[in-house]
Input
Amino acid sequence: MRKDGDVSNPSAPDSPLTDSTAFTIREATVDDVEDIARLVRELALYERAPEAATATPDHFREALFPREASPAAYAHVAERDGAVVGMAVWFVSFSTWTGRHGLWLEDLFVEPAQRGLGIGKALLTRLAAICTERDWTRLEWVVLDWNSPAIEFYRSLGATPLDEWTTYRVSGDALHDLTTRDVGH
Output
């Protein structure tokens, strides 16, 4: 990757940045929230849960670009031929074991027609660079156990599964019910 963020297909030897595989990785701007919302909906469809993606562009605008607070989340996008074709949405995590921050990748998605060009790898490379630049100790994410292409891709980059950990979630009615439970003394 060049300093300006232009990237070309790493599998094409000596490919100039002006070829048809060139793309740019950059920090998302407020102008990208419509595309981020679109890509999240595409990801939800791919993950067989389109009804679960209820976030609107306004939700992303509030989280990524709040007017009076620090952002709760961040995003990088991949742009090709003037269109946003991929995204990585992430937030800062913290490890009590290391006493240092890390980066939690909430979603990584590249449009199916744009895969195989190195865009996903370039997005993850940028996030790894953020961790290194800030002396953060971890870059972590989850992947659905049936998503073999993603699992193979992540393993090819040196990622290892944490099979001994199970992710838990409380949401919806259960989340509301938990707030009203008698905690006792």
Observations:
- The chain is about 30% helix and 20% strand.
- The beta strands are 6-7, 23-27, 74-80, 83-95, 100-110, 139-140.
